[in-house]
Amino acid sequence: MTDYQKENDKILAEYKSEAAKNHEEFIADGLMFCGKVVDKGGYWERIRGNESELYDKMSPKILLLTKDFPDDGGTEDIRIENFRINGKVEPETSGRRFHQNVMAHVWGLTHYMPDKGRCPKWSDEDFPWSWDDAREFYETNPIVRINMKKVPGKSSIDDKTLIGYMYNEKYRPILIKQIKLFNPDIIVCYSGAIFDFVINPANGIIKDVNKTSGWAYYSPIHKKIIINSYHPSYFGIKEETFYTDMMNSYENILREHQGLANAWFHNKKDKIGCKTLLQ
Question: Maximum distance among all alpha carbons in the chain?
């Protein structure tokens, strides 16, 4: 079994070293910690657990590619991230748009029902789910989140700056190595520029996808699904529409490639979701 955290820490050390040469700060990322979520002085944080072992069993493996992390002066590692409201004695799910969109997308992508040929609907009478369900699932399952710019930024970043970091001669090979380490089944690109980076044949990640106007794309060579998405904080689309459009495109691919759906979800007909599969 691959020790994903150990290998990822080596990759992060390379990026951190290059950032230091440019007198830039650095925020770690990768496979989210799957230990307990603990209250540290009013701030909820995940701690390391057996996430490498869980990721090895995860089906499908999910990679979220985001832009960067706003510099709040305190975060050094987004792998501690959870979607709880800080300062609360009992867990309370965050209502921030970024958090809710990410939670919903991860929930939907990992809860496809092969016997029904669909994911859970936004409001689903047959398979009801809540924000607390989605948050708990996100906290306890081995999801990978990588920032394509690991140098902290502001509240937003333009594509020119993001592309400059992704294609930086020092950072680019490190990013590619990190993405390949996790070898995900599904890559969610939360930016068109990130999607273009992933499908650029010169980067050697996905070599057989041509961009059109769709949300989800299938790579026959790599047997992966790549999603070209808006940023999770984008206000130009309703959250329900955001979720539904992404899931519809994803479902179409899985219905077309039933063998792929069966391989990823064959143990989930009766016990839907990765959490029950891994316990």
Answer: 55
